[in-house]
Task: inverse folding
């Protein structure tokens, strides 16, 4: 199964085998020579069993006192791979010989060699030399150099042992053996041997070199297809075309990793990942062995310390040789190099560390972050997912934080409470008192509660708009108390939230329920598209191996089939408030992007455990989240605006240039009126004040303290809740 982006570029593969069939006429002669030199030099002379080879192998094994050489011909390997098990018994060997004679009688030598070239297993789930050429070197078979051909030709003997990704030293030794045999058999000249032996090979370190790092997204697609096709999903050669944009995914992945690393750097070095006992003069094989269990994370590599002082650290990087890191590259870990460092945190000989090149191209010691993050974006007009980064490194953690992590949204949930309030007759100019508030155990159903604002201060009466722009907790609680938690719980279902995950308590106003980043991005899309609920989708169509369309997605678009769930006037006014959040509120940092069409909301939970930023314009919604898998504090002042917003900006700043800003036009039924910024009361056009937006049936009046529909003035009950 192959998964493609919206541009048609490969972003993922799943299946039992990787294959690419090639005709023997298209295999370079030097590749054929390398294979014959390594596996069966008398292939074109024997009749399936090489008696000369058997005698030579027997003599070699007798001299060495063990089984050092085998006598399997290419024909016997074809017989074994196509028809027999891998058990090592005399019966199987006898059957293998009989089948080899039968194959030689039925097929030409070239036909047998073609079967071998396409069938033999070469590691990394690669079957055949054409597939291996792409997997190990990223090239078609015809483009390989002699050195690369010799390395591939050495793999059939022991694909795991001579794998150039996992065991570069042993792979090099095996390649040299193949080249020597080619020279001895006069298949290459001495000059060709020297050139190939000295050529530096660039082996792909990853199993697949895709257009974008989209492991979590590809796995999401795989799960969807397995649910539909079961095991056939891996064997039918399905091609899945998705909504993911390579440009967007690259930007999301890079922004998330940069944001996570910046957070991690702020909180200091935790110490080496472990220690290895290195005797003096330990050979390179011992260094490789010590790093065997250490997995690289893209540009962050595992290394072992050979010498350490405050001014210089010498390390060995697996497969990459020795590195000397000076003072500039030791700033992050400086306190772990002195004598005062704790023994279990000190960087000394044998310490397992991580190294990475900085922006100037110099090596530095770093670490893998313990924190995780997610960033997901979609088109609010049809729900097409454009980017999905479910974590820092899919190879390290397959848990998809974008779709699976249920976390508290904190203040990023407040817009849905404010939207509910607008439906109840509140306006942007409704004045609510930001003053201390206390609830008894009887009122909360558990313990007494005194909601606090983030900064610990209270500012007194303020307009509803100001309350959300400044993310005032007390104002949000008073609003929820007025509209009732039960009403809000029912209302949020319009946005796709599961009411069961948001109990009808006043803490709902502060985002005490549970959401995933994917749920949040779909919910914010309702504000972005004018009030329609769209369903996130990620598969455009599925084709079988012959190009026939097996399935196709026809998404419902906003205004063209998608269900309207809130009044367009409500969506517009909420959009206008969240634009102020970006212009002058907790998300003001986003103004550095230089756009006037962005809206959004920060989110920070109690004790700084989760940090969010949810933002959008009319063509793109993106949600960023950061936190620990096992919930713990991110640290004092690690708010949504400081921790999540920067990598949201990194993504949006990469994909929005060139996208024109959309005009901000109010829908029918919205009126723009001038109000007093302190009292929220309407003033004449010529008097000092600010212009705000209102439902035409709920304009502010000189008595409008709560904007209760019909009455113009607050009822006593609502007045007591808001003040």
Result:
């Amino acid at each position: 199964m192959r998964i493609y982006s919206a541009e048609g570029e490969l972003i993922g593969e799943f299946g039992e085998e990787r294959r690419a069939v090639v005709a023997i006429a298209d295999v370079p002669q030097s590749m054929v020579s390398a294979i014959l030199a390594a596996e069966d030099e008398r292939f074109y002379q024997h009749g399936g069993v090489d008696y000369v080879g058997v005698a030579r192998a027997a003599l070699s094994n007798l001299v060495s006192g063990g089984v050092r050489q085998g006598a399997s011909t290419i024909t016997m390997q074809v017989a074994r791979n196509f028809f027999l098990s891998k058990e090592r018994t005399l019966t199987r060997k006898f059957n293998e010989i009989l089948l080899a004679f039968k194959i030689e009688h039925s097929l030409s030598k070239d036909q047998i060699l073609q079967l071998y070239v396409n069938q033999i297993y070469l590691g990394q789930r690669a079957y055949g030399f054409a597939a291996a050429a792409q997997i190990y070197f990223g090239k078609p078979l015809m483009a390989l150099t002699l050195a690369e051909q010799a390395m591939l030709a050495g793999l059939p003997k022991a694909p795991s042992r001579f794998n150039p990704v996992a065991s570069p030293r042993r792979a090099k030794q095996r390649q040299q053996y193949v080249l020597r045999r080619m020279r001895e058999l006069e298949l290459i000249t001495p000059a060709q041997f020297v050139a190939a032996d000295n050529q530096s090979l660039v082996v792909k370190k990853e199993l697949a070199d895709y257009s974008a790092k989209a492991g979590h997204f590809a796995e999401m697609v795989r799960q969807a297809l397995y649910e539909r096709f079961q095991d056939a999903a891996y064997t039918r050669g399905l091609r899945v075309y998705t909504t993911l944009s390579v440009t967007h995914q690259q930007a999301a992945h890079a922004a998330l990793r940069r944001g996570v690393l910046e957070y991690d750097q702020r909180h200091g070095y935790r110490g080496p990942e472990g220690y290895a006992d290195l005797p003096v003069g330990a050979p390179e094989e011992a260094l490789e062995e010590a790093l065997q269990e250490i997995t690289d994370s893209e540009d962050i590599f595992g290394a072992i310390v050979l010498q350490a002082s405050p001014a210089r650290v010498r390390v060995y990087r697996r497969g990459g040789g020795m590195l000397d890191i000076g003072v500039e590259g030791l700033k992050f870990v400086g306190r772990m190099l002195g004598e005062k460092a704790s023994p279990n945190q000190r960087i000394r000989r044998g310490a397992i560390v991580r190294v990475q090149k900085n922006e100037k191209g110099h090596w530095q010691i770093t670490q893998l972050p313990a924190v995780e993050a997610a960033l997901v974006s979609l088109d609010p007009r049809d729900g097409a997912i454009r980017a999905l980064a479910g974590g820092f490194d899919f190879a390290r953690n397959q848990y998809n934080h974008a779709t699976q992590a249920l976390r508290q949204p904190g203040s990023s949930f407040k817009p849905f409470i404010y939207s509910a309030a607008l439906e109840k007759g509140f306006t942007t100019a409704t004045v609510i008192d930001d003053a201390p508030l206390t609830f008894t155990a009887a009122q909360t159903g558990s313990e007494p509660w005194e909601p606090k604002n983030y900064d610990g201060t209270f500012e007194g009466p303020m307009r509803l708009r100001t309350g959300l722009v400044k993310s005032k907790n007390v104002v949000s609680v008073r609003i929820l108390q007025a509209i009732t938690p039960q009403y809000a719980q029912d209302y949020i279902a319009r946005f796709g939230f599961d009411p069961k995950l948001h109990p009808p308590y006043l803490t709902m106003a502060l985002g005490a329920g549970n959401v995933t980043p994917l749920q949040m991005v779909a919910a914010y899309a309702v504000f972005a598209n004018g009030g329609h609920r769209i369903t996130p989708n990620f598969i455009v169509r599925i084709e079988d191996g012959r190009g026939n369309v097996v399935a196709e997605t026809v998404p419902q678009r906003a205004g063209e089939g998608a269900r309207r769930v809130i009044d367009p006037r409500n969506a517009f006014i909420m959009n206008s408030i969240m634009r102020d959040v970006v212009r002058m509120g907790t998300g003001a940092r986003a103004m550095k992007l230089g756009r006037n069409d962005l809206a959004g909301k920060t989110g920070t939970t109690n004790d700084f455990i989760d940090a969010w930023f949810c933002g959008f314009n009319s063509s793109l919604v993106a949600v960023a989240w950061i936190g620990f898998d096992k919930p713990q504090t991110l640290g004092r002042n690690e708010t949504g605006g400081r921790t999540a917003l920067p990598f949201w900006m990194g993504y949006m700043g990469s994909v929005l240039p060139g996208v024109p800003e959309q005009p901000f036009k109010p829908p029918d039924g919205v009126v723009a009126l001038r109000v007093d910024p302190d009292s929220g009361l309407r003033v004449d056009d010529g008097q000092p004040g600010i212009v705000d937006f209102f439902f035409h049936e709920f304009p502010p009046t000189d008595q409008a303290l709560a904007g209760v529909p019909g009455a113009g003035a607050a009822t006593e009950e609502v007045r007591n809740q808001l003040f």
